[in-house]
């Protein structure tokens, strides 16, 4: 199973949503998990994970992960060639490196990262930025290219974004 997470922030709470789907080419989700949590910290530039990681971990408590399950986050896993990690990297560590974590970001992080792959989908000239830990990022790049939907943002990730804003 693949579990994709996204969080949207309101004034006094965060709405975290997870869409579970069977495989990379899935058009529809198998299950949706949601949770609203109070915001424990404000946005801190360069430390986004401090705000979002507790939300994802809290929602993960409602999900029984199996050995081959994969997690996707809206953001980065690795940030640079010096070993700095983003939200996904911190999640990978919090899960004791037992499950692959993939970051699919819409906005470019400017530092060089040899583990970052650009993925062009549909007719878009703007790539998605893919990073990963626990799985080969080149394999993931191909899988993201093959995800359902004709546009830059795959169908289920677009739905995930919309659900987090409801």
Note the main attributes of this structure:
hydrolase, endonuclease activity, archaeoglobus fulgidus dsm 4304 fold, 166 residues, alpha/beta, endonuclease, 7 strands, 7-stranded mixed sheet
Explained architecture:
Helix content is 24%, strand content 26%. With 166 residues, the chain is α/β, with parallel strands linked by helices. The protein has a single domain, classed as archaeoglobus fulgidus dsm 4304 superfamily (archaeoglobus fulgidus dsm 4304 fold, 2-Layer Sandwich). A seven-stranded mixed sheet has the order 3-2-1-4-5-7-6, sandwiched between helices. It is globular and about 35 Å long. The chain starts with a strand and ends with a helix. The model has no long low-confidence stretch (mean pLDDT 94).
- CATH topology term: archaeoglobus fulgidus dsm 4304 fold
H/E element string?
Answer: EEEHEHEEEHH
Number of helices: 4
The secondary structure category is alpha/beta
Over the alpha carbons, how many angstroms does the gyration radius reach? 15 Å
Quote the average pLDDT. Answer: 94
